[in-house]
Design brief:
The complex is a heterotrimer of chains A (307), B (282) and C (515). Chain A has 307 residues and is mostly helical. Helices cover 79% and strands 0% of the residues of chain A. Chain A is built from 13 helices and no strands. Chain A is globular, with a radius of gyration of 24 Å. Chain B has a single domain, classed as MetI-like (MetI-like fold). A seven-stranded mixed β-sheet of chain C has the order 11-12-13-2-14-23-15, covered by helices on one side. Chain C has a five-stranded mixed β-sheet with strand order 19-18-20-16-21. A four-stranded antiparallel β-sheet of chain C has the order 6-7-9-8, with helices on one face. The longest helix of chain C is centred in the first third of the chain and has 19 residues. The chains are: A mainly alpha (307), B mainly alpha (282), C alpha+beta (515). Chains in contact: A-B, A-C, B-C. Chain A: Belongs to the binding-protein-dependent transport system permease family.
Chain lengths: 307, 282, 515
């Protein structure tokens, strides 16, 4: 078990490192000299500031050394300064990170609360009308652009009915964006629940349990659902990553003050250090969450525990 | 990760959902191809009708804030969206395919390194990869297409690798190797024809995600720029009219949904067909 | 329940009833939340140039002088002021007992420190040229004496504008700037692109003639939120999340007719929108081509469609209602909407449908403007000019234009901008070399601009007309609309007393929020 944790932590670290290097390389995609490109966007670009920036980025060095330099800075927790406002990138991102997580977790909560029962229903009514309906909903769910759904929910709940606010960071403000994310990603959860449960239901011990004359709801709830839920845990990490990705747009639709909105703002302003910082922080969040879920799975699944 | 081990069986049973998907896709593709003939107005022409007119016989989907005919714009947008989707999928599939094959047949070290990189990239949502790339490349239709293509590479590389690795273990490959045939030739002559069909199936799955990414990028103002009638761009410029003229939002949104839905339906069924083991399970 | 509380409740109920009957309700101190589409770029009033920044700094800082509705100059931080007969020396007597937000006192020495910083090259003050030809200043008891190298007519009116804030020296005493002023609101916190928090200044003594409340603002806390999405802003207004918002232009007309809401339009905006050219780059160095592009622009459509009829076309390179602005006169100098004529000019110059002139249309994002640029793009296409729109955020745009306007080759660009002020002297700010974002023109214009500063009254008006005529006949500027940004606000009906001042400054001193 300890070995498993160690292995997961090391892999996670290697992945984050790879992402940092990649985001260091990305800046070289910008046509021309990065400092000129960056500073074309800044009013405070005195020659001294530009020289300092050049030295920091090591622009006289070969590209690989520049990337190494950037990686070094990031590993020390220094993501650089924003071009607009000259504030530390790391501080701005960390300020917003709790908001982003709050929304992601609420969205995931809605997705699980809707998706697991739907998937369960589809699995036990397999091949029948209820199954088909659930599966059609599932395909529809992954086909609707989340930002479009968001706009429609705003129109309905905020503008027409005036029930729920948008834009802000209170608990009532989180409801609409969380609902949007939840509705979009519950489809994924429903599908995964369905196939996990179907797999479990075909196992021998379920047949044995049924043969022993146990009540069907007992078989389903006690013997089938629990192991199925354990395998759902493995995919929660994946759903979470995709949800975080979709959330970048949703935060902008709802003017939700998370790192996604900060990032898109930076993208429109071409604030490159901010964008790089966002990539690093976002990737780290995804990697850490999936690492934790892997480890959690290790604890839940007896087969894994013995290893 | 789905590992595909079989090619498409000869006689697939066609389910109603595939028929629905195929029907929708055919209508959408035809409508987009014939857009210039079907569209009653030039999609860029302002004051083609009154401003913000509700749907009517003259303007089937209504008009937008400039009096442009929305029906014509949504049709023209289909050409753009499908065009972006196809270019991105083809180039993503080519690059991803080469990377996947290289991982499968390039020796142990190459395999280990490439696989690691692919897996890292694959763990990030493709929309996000596209977003990050566009941030550095700059907005515009070409850059958006390029970014979406790159964002699909990890997916296609992973799928190709899975197929090729399964093929690699087959006896005839071993025999060919022993006969002294080089890897390059082996892949070209023996592996490609065998996995090609399955790859085409996988391509449809990337297609719907490419369309969604393109719409998302344009909606944020980072993809196709106005006045181009790309669906996401129409939604972006029409969003403030949500109360006054909801049709500006409803029709392009539905167009995205139906397109993505149709390709998802086709892709899902084809995936089941291509992977009988999976089919048996579900 | 004790009887005293009971009777108090009864009294309150009675008071409420009376209030309602009289059409008023009980007014209490309250918090106010404002939602805008764009955040401030800086809270350092001597480094900020965007309207969105100055709207905030103007609440934290005061100006030396103020202006009343009729445009005449009134006391501000200075209780009285005088100009020497030769027009080269000004003397400002600083009001007694002025307190900075940190408790320090604001006196003539503080005013001098602030002035010195505003003029220092190290400050990089974007409004430096507007301060005029100041050669020095000295403290003389309670007074600050400012010397100029030559007469500068617009000096007093500039000192009333939101660009001419006076800071408390503690603001810039340390390396990190802290917004500390004497204004009606104290700075509390700023989270960039999210919110700015201000609190009422309990010691405030008002001098601004546009404001009635003599002392501390009625509201205690003032929060500015950034909500870029117009739809989300409207939702915030309707749900009560925000009390006062920049409404979406699309819905402003509907709000006006809804008794639950109030719509405010600034009458004193001093705003003017222009189209300009990279005239150093061929073929835009040719005035005929620039004129043709101007002739293609359908300004009526921009006003009625892009801005939903909420703004007017404006003919001069300076805003209507400012000193000397004469719309009819300007109309006789400027190009007239004539797409056919424009097309003929372009075709004569060799630009046909198959071989169009390719230009960039460099613009920044703002409500209404985005739509205007789309119509403009179509207007240009009609005269064989293929314009590619490139949109940036407001602050990033002006930084970018600085580089673009320096270039003498490359792809030609048409660009749009807005400028606001309280005096037509902002022509100097824009067009005198190097000019705002390097848009300065030539020696001839520089000379005329310098001359108008030394004049006053009728002769000055004549000189300004001469400059406007030059700009328009050579088509360096194509005046478009007025006003154009941030001039509209909407609140729920509970908000009373909100006003908008010059240059769409926001005045909250008189605001009350009824329960």
């Amino acid at each position: 078990m300890l070995l498993l944790i160690l292995k997961r932590v090391l892999t996670a670290f290697a992945t984050v490192l790879a992402v940092i290097v990649l985001s260091g390389i990305l800046i070289h995609l910008v046509p021309g000299d990065p400092v000129t490109a960056m500073m074309a966007q800044s009013v405070t670009a005195t020659p001294e500031v530009m020289a300092a920036m050049r030295a920091r980025l090591g622009l006289d060095l070969p590209v690989w050394q520049q990337v190494a330099l950037y990686t070094g800075h990031v590993l020390q927790g220094d993501l650089g300064m924003t071009i607009r406002g000259n504030e530390p990138v790391a501080r701005l991102l960390l300020q917003r990170l709790p908001n982003t997580f709050a929304l992601a977790v609420s969205g995931l909560g809605v997705a699980l609360a809707l998706g697991i029962p739907l998937g369960f229903l589809a699995a036990i009514k397999r091949g029948r009308l209820a199954d088909t309906i659930v599966m059609v909903i599932a395909v529809l769910g992954v086909s609707v652009p989340a930002f479009w759904l968001g706009l429609i929910l705003i129109q309905l709940f905020a503008l027409k009915l005036g029930w729920l606010p948008v834009a802000g960071s209170g608990w009532r403000n989180i409801l609409l964006p969380a609902l949007t994310l939840g509705l979009t990603y519950c489809a994924l959860v429903a599908r995964m629940t369905r196939s996990a449960l179907i797999e479990v239901l075909s196992e021998d011990y379920i047949r044995t349990a049924r043969a022993r004359g146990l009540k069907e709801h007992r078989v389903l709830l006690v013997h089938a659902l629990r192991p199925a839920l354990i395998s759902i845990v493995t995919v929660v990490g994946l759903v979470f990553a995709y949800l975080l990705g979709g959330q970048v747009i949703i935060e902008n639709v709802f003017s939700w003050n998370g790192i996604g909105r900060l990032a898109v703002q930076a993208m429109l302003e071409r604030d490159y250090p901010m964008i790089q910082g966002f990539i690093v922080v976002f990737a780290t969040s995804v990697v850490v969450v999936s690492m934790l879920i892997d480890i959690l799975y290790g604890f839940l699944d007896p087969r894994m525990r013995q290893r | 990760m789905t590992v595909l081990s079989q090619t498409v069986p000869r006689r697939p049973r066609v389910s109603p959902t595939v028929l629905l998907g195929l029907g929708l896709a055919t209508i959408i593709v035809l409508a987009s191809l014939l857009a210039p003939m079907l569209a009653p107005f030039d999609p860029l022409r302002m004051a083609a009708g009154p401003r913000l007119a509700a749907p009517s016989l003259a303007h089937l989907f209504g008009t937008d804030e400039f009096g442009r005919d929305l029906f014509s714009r949504v049709l023209a947008g289909g050409r753009l969206s499908l065009g972006i989707g196809i270019s991105a999928v083809v180039s993503g599939l080519l690059v991803g395919g080469v990377v996947g094959l290289a991982a499968a047949f390039g020796g142990r070290l190459t395999e280990a390194v490439l696989l690691r990189v692919i897996d890292v990239l694959y763990s990030f949502p493709d929309t996000l990869i596209a977003l990050a790339l566009v941030a550095f490349l700059g907005p515009g239709i070409e850059n958006a297409t390029l970014a979406i293509a790159i964002s699909l590479v990890p997916f296609y590389a992973r799928v190709t690798y899975g197929l090729a690795a399964a093929e690699r273990s087959k006896p005839y490959i071993e025999a060919a190797r022993l006969a002294g045939i080089r890897s390059g030739r082996l892949v070209r002559v023996h592996v490609m024809p065998n996995i090609g069909q399955s790859l085409v199936v996988m391509a449809t799955l990337g297609f719907s995600s490419a369309i969604l990414s393109a719409a998302g990028l344009s909606f944020l103002g980072l993809g196709v720029q106005p006045p181009s009638p790309e669906w996401g761009a129409i939604l972006a410029s029409g969003r403030n009219y949500i109360t006054k003229a909801p049709w500006i939002l409803i029709f392009p949104g539905l167009a995205i949904c139906l397109t993505v839905l149709s390709f998802n339906l086709i892709g899902d069924s084809l995936r089941d067909l291509a992977d009988p083991r999976r089919k048996a399970r579900s | 329940m004790t009887s005293s509380i009971k009777s108090r409740l009864a009294l309150m109920a009675a008071a409420t009833a009376i209030g309602l009957a009289a059409g008023f309700s009980a007014v209490t101190a309250a918090d106010l939340t404002v939602a805008r589409s764009v955040d401030a770029d800086s809270l350092d009033a001597q480094k900020a140039s965007t309207t969105q920044s100055l709207q905030i700094t103007n609440l934290i800082f005061d100006t030396m002088l103020t202006m009343d509705k009729s445009g005449s100059v009134q006391p501000g931080l200075a209780s009285e002021w005088s100009m020497s007969p030769d027009g080269k020396t000004y003397r400002f007597t600083i009001r007694d007992g002025l307190k900075c937000h940190d408790g320090s006192s604001f006196d003539a020495a503080a005013a001098k420190a602030s002035l010195d910083r505003a003029l220092s090259p190290e400050t990089n003050n974007p409004n430096l040229s507007a301060w005029g030809p100041i050669t020095g200043s000295k403290v003389d008891g309670k007074a600050l004496t400012v010397s100029l190298s030559e007469p500068y007519g617009p000096f007093a009116s500039f000192l009333t504008s939101i660009q001419a804030a006076f800071l408390c020296p503690s603001s810039f005493a340390s390396a990190e700037f802290k917004p500390i002023g004497t204004g009606p609101f104290k700075f509390v916190s700023w989270t960039r692109n999210d919110s700015i928090q201000l609190a009422a200044n309990p010691d405030y003594k008002n001098a601004n003639p546009l404001i009635e409340n003599p002392g501390k603002p009625h509201i205690d806390k003032l929060t500015f939120k950034v909500i870029p999405e117009a739809v989300a802003r409207m939702a915030a207004l309707r749900s009560g999340e925000a009390d006062l918002v920049e409404p979406s232009l699309e819905e402003a007309t509907d709000l006006k007719n809804d008794s639950n809401f109030k719509v405010y339009a600034a009458e004193l905006s001093g705003q003017q929108m222009l189209a300009a050219f990279t005239w150093k780059i061929k073929p835009l160095d040719n005035p005929e081509i620039r004129k043709a592009i101007g002739m293609a622009m359908n300004r009526d459509a921009y006003a009625s469609i892009a801005f939903e009829g909420l703004v007017n076309t404006a003919n001069c390179p300076v805003a209507p209602n400012l000193f000397s602005t004469d719309e009819a006169l300007c109309a006789s100098w400027g190009v007239k909407y004539d797409p056919e004529g424009a097309k003929a000019i372009m075709e004569k110059a060799g630009y046909t449908k198959d071989k169009p002139l390719k230009v960039k249309l460099l613009v920044h994002k703002l409500p209404g403007w985005d739509q205007m640029h789309q119509i403009m793009q179509q207007d240009l296409a009609a005269i064989n000019v293929e314009a590619e729109i490139e949109t940036r955020e407001v602050a990033a745009f002006f930084d970018y234009m600085k580089g673009v306007n320096e270039k003498t080759d490359g792809e030609p660009a048409v660009w749009t901008m807005g400028m606001s002020g309280v005096d037509p002297d902002y022509l100097t700010f824009l067009w005198k070399r190097p000019g705002f974002v390097n848009m300065g023109l030539n020696a001839e214009v520089d000379t005329m601009l310098d001359e108008q500063r030394k004049l006053s009254g009728e002769p000055r008006a004549a000189k300004i007309h001469e400059i406007e005529k030059y700009l328009m006949e050579n088509a360096y500027a194509v005046p478009l609309l007025s006003p154009g940004w941030g001039w509209l606000m909407a609140s729920n009906a509970k908000v009373e007393g909100f006003k908008m001042g010059f240059m769409v400054s926001l005045l909250f001193n008189d605001v009350t929020v009824s329960k």
